[in-house]
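STRUCTURE:
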């Protein structure tokens, strides 16, 4: 299966893969205990299942989480990360009531988070594709079909005048 076909939605195709990382409030090392670590993994997998998110990699360290996930095209990365943090905190407080003594205000995770997109091609390859794809000369020579000069040939100080016909 093509990697783009895993996220298809209403005439659109995407590949939205992200690396997420977040840590416990005050960097408390609550995942030293294997049972709490296991409960956290269960909570994260359940959150993914409920929200149609595919977990590609996951690591629960003693005070933080790393995940590489593929999210639906209709979901923002911030929304996905908030779903993971919210549901896992909710479930961990239910399964391990003694965590409330460590976190009396009910905030298991710190406000901070890290997210970065993960691509299957490099930035250089994407730029090369755009250059090659749009470098094809039209019948007008070095002019764009709409009548404007090619963007790569523009002098940065000049104003671009485009005369578009009315349709």
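SEQUENCE:
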């Amino acid at each position: 299966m093509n990697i783009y076909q895993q996220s298809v939605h209403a005439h659109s195709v995407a590949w939205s893969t992200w690396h997420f990382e977040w840590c416990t409030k005050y960097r408390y090392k609550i995942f030293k205990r294997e049972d709490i670590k296991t409960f956290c993994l269960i909570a994260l997998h359940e959150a993914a299942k409920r929200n149609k998110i595919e977990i590609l990699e996951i690591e629960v360290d003693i005070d933080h989480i790393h995940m590489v996930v593929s999210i639906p095209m209709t979901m923002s990365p911030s929304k996905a990360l908030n779903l993971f943090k919210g549901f896992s905190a909710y479930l961990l407080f239910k399964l391990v009531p003694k965590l409330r003594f460590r976190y009396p205000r009910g905030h298991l995770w710190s406000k901070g988070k890290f997210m970065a997109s993960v691509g299957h091609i490099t930035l250089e390859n994407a730029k090369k594709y755009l250059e090659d794809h749009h470098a094809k000369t039209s019948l007008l020579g070095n002019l764009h079909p709409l009548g404007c000069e090619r963007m790569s040939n523009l002098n940065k100080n000049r104003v671009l005048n485009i005369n578009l016909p009315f349709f």
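REMARK: The longest strand covers residues 17-23.
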